[in-house]
Amino acid sequence: MILLAIGCGFLTGRLEEVNKSVLTGTSQAVQLLIGLMGGICFWNGIMTIAKDAGLTKKLANLFSPLLRLLFHGINKGDQVLENISMNITANLMGLGNAATPSGIQAMKLLQQANPDKKTASQNMILFVVMNTAAIQLIPTTIAVLRSSHGAANPFDLILATLLCSITSLFGAILMAKLLGRRKRHAD
């Protein structure tokens, strides 16, 4: 795309405008990155404190009955359950970046329990679906982006985000369960 833009700028005689746009765009990208880093570092720190304080274990116990219903073969107290709970908690807070380490660890643990190492298990598929369509109580990253672009109230989209994420999560879980059941019956 960059080469195409430079080529079009050269052919139309507007190469100077392309150069200015490239320089302006890179400067804006760096400013955006620095603004996002502050919010992301803060919330990642909060998640680390929550884990060190044992809050994630308490949340794992809270989510345990629901998660055991959704994920077959996972028992209370399993390490995978704590990682899934921590991932869900980070996503609830709108912290996709903070959810990544616990999500990776959960997938590793789910893979260890997977009898067919070449194919994703139903639990792995369900976890990816839930992680992708996660409920966000606090859309932190979007709020930081909105704030950096001058929004008067960066968090005024909480209700819309909550409704959309709940709808997408339930739809995603339903489809994963239905398609998983269909695959089991086909085998």
Automatic annotation (TrEMBL):
<feature type="domain" description="Nucleoside transporter/FeoB GTPase Gate">
    <location>
        <begin position="35"/>
        <end position="144"/>
    </location>
</feature>
<feature type="transmembrane region" description="Helical">
    <location>
        <begin position="124"/>
        <end position="145"/>
    </location>
</feature>
<feature type="transmembrane region" description="Helical">
    <location>
        <begin position="157"/>
        <end position="179"/>
    </location>
</feature>
<dbReference type="Pfam" id="PF07670">
    <property type="entry name" value="Gate"/>
</dbReference>
<keyword id="KW-1133">Transmembrane helix</keyword>
<keyword id="KW-0472">Membrane</keyword>
<keyword id="KW-0812">Transmembrane</keyword>
<protein>
    <submittedName>
        <fullName>Spore maturation protein A</fullName>
    </submittedName>
</protein>
<dbReference type="InterPro" id="IPR011642">
    <property type="entry name" value="Gate_dom"/>
</dbReference>
<feature type="transmembrane region" description="Helical">
    <location>
        <begin position="31"/>
        <end position="50"/>
    </location>
</feature>
